[in-house]
Amino acid sequence: PPTPPTRGARVQFILNTSPNAGNLQDLLWAIYRDLYCECVMKNPLYTPGTPFRCEQFTQKLEQLIKPLQAQ
Question: Do 68 and 35 meet the contact criterion of CB atoms below 8 Å apart?
Answer without folding.
Answer: no
